[in-house]
Amino acid sequence: MSNSFFDNELLNNTTIPLSPMAKEFNEYITDFSQRSILFMDTMRKRGNEMLDMTTDDHATVLNFDYEKIMDGSSFDQPINYWLARMLPPNGITTDNHKRPYVIQDPRAGQGPGIGGFKKDSEIGDALKNGHPVYFIGFNSRPCENQTYEDIIRGQVKFYEKIAELHQDSPKMCAIGNCAAGYLTMFSAMQRPEIFGPIVIAGSPLSYWNGERGKNPMRYAGGLVGGSWVNSLIGDLGGGKFDGTYLILNFDLLNLSNFLWTKQYDLFANIDKDSDRYLQFEKWWGDFIQFNTPEIKWLVDKLFIGNELTTGNLMTKDGIRLDPRNITSPLITFISDGDNISPPAQSAGWIADLYKDAEEIKARGKTIIYCLNRKVGHLAIFTATKVGKRENEVFVENMDSMDVLAPGLYELIIDTPEGEEEQGKIRSHYEPRTIEDIKALGWNSEDDDRAFATVAKASNAFSFMYDTLVHPMFRMFAKDQYAETMKKMRPLRLSYTLFAETINPWMKIFANLAPKVQDKRTTINNNNPFLQLQNQYSEYINQNLQKFTELRDQVQEQVFFNFWTNPLVQKFWGTDSEKPRFTPSTTQLDLDKITSEYNDEIQKHVQVNTELSALFRLFGLAQYKKSFQEFRIRALIEAAQMIAPELKLQDVHEVIKHQAMIIRHDPKLALSELKKYLNTQNHKDDLVKNFNLVVSIFIGNYGAEFRPETKAQLAKFSEELGIELTIL
Prior knowledge:
Elements: H1 9-13, H2 20-54, E1 66-71, E2 81-86, E3 101-104, H3 122-128, E4 133-138, H4 148-165, E5 172-177, H5 179-190, E6 195-201, H6 220-223, H7 228-236, E7 240-242, H8 244-253, H9 255-268, H10 270-284, E8 289-291, H11 292-304, E9 330-335, H12 343-346, H13 348-353, H14 357-362, E10 366-372, H15 379-382, H16 384-388, H17 390-401, E11 407-413, E12 427-431, H18 434-438, H19 445-469, H20 479-487, H21 490-496, H22 507-518, H23 528-563, H24 566-572, H25 587-602, H26 610-621, E13 627-628, H27 629-642, H28 648-664, H29 666-679, H30 683-701, H31 707-720
Parallel strand pairs: 3-4, 3-5, 5-6, 6-9, 9-10, 10-11
Antiparallel strand pairs: 1-2, 2-4, 7-8, 11-12, 12-13
Helix pairs in contact: 2-10, 2-22, 4-5, 7-11, 7-19, 9-10, 9-23, 17-27, 26-28, 26-29, 26-31, 27-30, 28-29
């Protein structure tokens, strides 16, 4: 059999030896031809899958079995969302007494399932750790006349149902990805008492914030004159806004990847990357739709209006959506490589809402951020490395997050990349300040004034469009016209033109691909023609990147040149008023809040149980040091052995209160512990419980005390008159 895909007898039987260059060229042409056929076959499968997904209103890319337990379409005001219980894979058992996890996917252009389309995912990690897991998904088409406020009101019922099913468990952990982050928070704002820790991953909440020279997507609204464009797009779609526009916005941020690299990488690695590519594209090409009023609400209220962090966002029926209503620990997962929700937007809300870290403490809030230095927006939800690292840490750390004293922290992962499989991932909490948040990206007043001017102009242009132009589109509000327009969208065509039912010529590759696989030959990476191909690809990539950088610079310059123009601002009346409202308390309010916080501390100053004595001792030894997560877990494990009658939530409260007291007045905390030990003979109990914790440290976590902690414990041992065996 010939080594070439083309059965060339002349080359096989000739007695004239081929030169090395000719042989390498023949091998390259063979490999190139085979790759091309396999590439086109992959594109055929991609097109077919896109049609299958978009014709099924209930399609998901979940890699886990599930059963629906609530359907929003049956609500008095129907919504296209549903709640499902995830079924654990074979060999995994979940415990209904453990904390339930609720994962919500972003309805941001694609269908649901990205939070669980891999084994190592948010869903997979929670199931692996034995937690009951629920998923909030959605259908690709909205219910008739559905508004975004209908969704905000309706989704609370899903969380209420989960709370009802797990009344004897620790409060649920809710995870919201991207656009689902603020939707999850909207539910917690309405029913804060039923939520445990909330994780918002890659979710922009402070929409104006950013840094000049980076992440130009925040300028999009200003470059087109506001949200009237969304109304126009919806009118052209017969009252439906197509999710392809949102996906295209994302794709256009990185032209080199969109137009070249994504496809070239598939072509260059077709033998190993085809399945991975199809798995992702099955979700990426599952385009969904919004009712036009839905997308308008989001753009007007959040992205252009930036009302979420004002504390004044209201629904029409009077529900105040204020993030400060949330009482649970809030964890935000951010990344420097995220160009959709950069750290300035996904963490900047903290500085919008709170004047300083002391206010966060006084209000009894626990806020944590975890910063990844390089992964892109989609990798936050899709990357296997993130699934094995950050997602795993979030699942393992929920109990420790629930017991941290109020304040602002950064969760730092100590385990080096690549060593995650060697054991439990180690992490710790570092106290942070509002200045640390602002260092991630913060607007100047001039920048804020530019965005405020855009918001005011957008409202005016939208009013004019709705009054003068929108009525003219009534003739297009027909299902047949809307469906035709949807199919003709460029991004949809980039998939469907490769599908067999649309393009019968693609069947050729379905027949050729198996034959190519049978005769597949690969070439050495040193082949000069392959190297020339890669160099040409890199040349294209670099030029597209340069063009993208130039485009971004021009867009930013146009945005600020126009919207910071004094005449433009004077015309819209934003030249003298405060450009941006962010919540801030008066000194009187802060004094009142601080007084209430101190009153709460005073209730728990006295030591009156074995657990409070144990936690106070360890808390004093760790005072002003970083909080290693596994040490908190060890304390919780010991507590459940010492006082098995207590619920986990009760243990959390004891640890949390002890931390608050120690931070408030460590001398008083030590004095009260001494009183407890001297009043009655509790010293033996404390030593016994201390030794239990030490054994858990060593036996379960292979850990020892740090030298400075040993020194502190030795000091307290002498002062309290107890003998601690410090290993």
